Model the fold of this input.
Amino acid sequence: MSLLDTGYDKFDAIEKHHNDGAESCSVTLTVTDSEDDVENFDGETGKEHGHAEMDALYQFLNGIGWDVEQFKTYSLTLTCQDKACCKHCSAILGHLGVTAGEKTYKSNRTMGKTSYSIHPSFRSFLAKYLKCKEEKIRVELLGWTT
Ligand SMILES: [Zn+2]
Done:
């Protein structure tokens, strides 16, 4: 199985092809640290960080300097109620061990030819976290053909 399939399976959301029909999507990432302090990050689509889920993760990860060891000390929950998380977002959330919040679903339907991208810092973070080459992230997880 590819990284896309294994990550999608790992994400603990219920599979439901739910979509409110709107272009935009907003999500909340809830981050709890080892001392039970909670911080929320709101993510939106169209902020040059890819989908809303990735925008929220970008803000959090950028805040901790993309530090893999530090990342492991937090527990994360993502709540996205406008529409189901797409297959790519779900796979990344699954690999990172993010828990699905209330009324948060996942969908493996492809969205046509829309390209999926995440910030370069995020790509190298994933490669470090999953202990693989960035090329594998690009091809297997993000579905780039070149
Ligand atoms: Zn997505």
